[in-house]
Amino acid sequence: ADKKQLAVLREELDHLRHRQASAGSDGDDAGKALAEAEAAVAAAEAALAKVDGIDRADDTAAWRAALVELTEAVTGGGGAAGAIGAASKAADLRDASSTAGAQDLLDNSKALFGHLKARNARYGREGDDGMQ
Predict the structure, then answer these.
(1) How many CA atoms lie within 13 A of 124 on its CB side?
(2) In angstroms, rounded to a whole number, what is the distance separating the alpha carbons of residues 24 and 30?
(3) How do the pLDDT tens digits run along the chain, 132 residues long?
(4) How far apart are CA 70 and CA 73, in angstroms?
(5) Angstrom distance (rounded) from CA 16 to CA 19
(6) Residue 16: which of 29, 4, 3 has the closest Cα?
């Protein structure tokens, strides 16, 4: 784990925040996963600060221990990378269900519009309310 990897995770977190702000709702699963990802990234940033705060030459053992902690905070079981992945999956599921619902609405609207056009063609007169 390094600063570049953590920077990429921050970018992904910002992207997930934007997705949540534009498509999410309070208390949805994607929002809960986002909160967990934010906490995991904050823990990784704290671990990075700990590594940066130790002089490797003065205390190699402490520096290595902090580096292991950082690696675990970024890539470990409850790490930031996994939390970002879970939040992304939750957002994808939310967005897919929203899109599917919108597609159903669009399909039903098209069918209804076709039905109305057929009724107007059969029963309507130019300029009546139904034609307009």
Answers:
(1) 14
(2) 7
(3) 678 889 999 999 999 999 999 888 878 999 999 999 999 999 999 999 999 999 999 999 999 999 999 999 999 888 999 999 999 999 999 888 766 666 666 777 787 777 777 777 777 777 777 666
(4) 5
(5) 5
(6) 29
What number of other Cβ atoms are within 10 A of residue 27's Cβ? 7
Report the alpha-carbon distance of residue 29 to residue 93 in Å, rounded: 9
How many residues are given for the chain? Answer: 132
HEC string of the chain equals CCHHHHHHHHHHHHHHHHHHHHHCCCCCHHHHHHHHHHHHHHHHHHHHHHHHCCCCCCCHHHHHHHHHHHHHHHHCCCCHHHHHHHHHHHHHHHHHHHHHHHHHHHHHHHHHHHHHHHHHHHHCCCCCCCCC
> Would you say the pTM of this structure is higher than 0.90?
no
